[in-house]
Fold this sequence. Notes:
The chain is of the alpha/beta class. The chain is built from eleven helices and 14 strands. The strands form three sheets. The protein has a six-stranded mixed β-sheet with strand order 6-7-8-4-9-10, with helices on both faces. Helix 3 crosses helix 4. The mean pLDDT is 90.
Amino acid sequence: MNEYVIETTQLTKSYGSVAALEHVNLHVKKGSIYGLIGDNGAGKSTMFKLLAGHALPTSGELQLLGSHEGKDLNRARKHMGFMIEQPGFFPNMTVEKTLEYYRIQKGVPDRKKAEEMLYLTRIDHKRKSKCKTLSLGQKQRLGLAIAMIGEPAVLILDEPINGLDPSGIIEFRNLLHRLNEEKNVTLLLSSHILTELEQLATTYGFLDNGRLIEEIPAKDLMEKCSDCIEIKVSDAAKYAALLEKSFPEESYTVLPDSAIRITKPKKELEIYGRLASENAISIIGMGRLQSSLEDYYMNLKSANGGKTA
Length: 309
């Protein structure tokens, strides 16, 4: 049995002469939380639209829940929930009527499902409110409620925490964890808040200019984001020369403001401090740091220079 609930092979989408996606090979394992990361215009929304069937690929193959042909793909999508870009609602329709409308549209026979989703996403207190009166965060919750009707096996969420306040973000994160752990829902989501993705994702995919430059399990990324030492000195150029001469096996970067960052250091912190002090270089500051997901993404983009890994 295929371990991937979503898999693309050389998936490409072009608009005229502009390629929004180029030869993307995406792999989303069953039961995972896949965080798709990329700048605006990187191709995330285009990818989600292709998965949802809102657009057709120019070339390449798309496989959803084991299906890869037109009618089979559409049947597979009935077992998936989507919240792509800003959720759209009928402005003068109430929240509960909106959910009932989508329940019928999706062919879900159990009338209680709409009610359950109201409480699951904590939008029940707004059930009689018209959609046009909802805040951005409330619209996000309603969008998730609609996506969850029918208890899909896969949820695809584009910027799901957009507009939520800090407590709302925590609640939303906990909800997604519960869906994943208790109901075994596979999640594919994007977010500009990378610190939030760090607390959710089990796998990451990095898009840049329409190309998937890397896929990596969270545990492997944590190993790559091993600690580093940053030392700020009075003479960075002199210290860098000493570092290269004394410890040629070390990898380092000269940063602005006379700082040196040593990645994956092989010595104890004190040894790097002693190298400065013994050579009449003043230490302004020194500490051990952990690379963040944001750092990793920016370094990956820079290293690839727009080319796929």
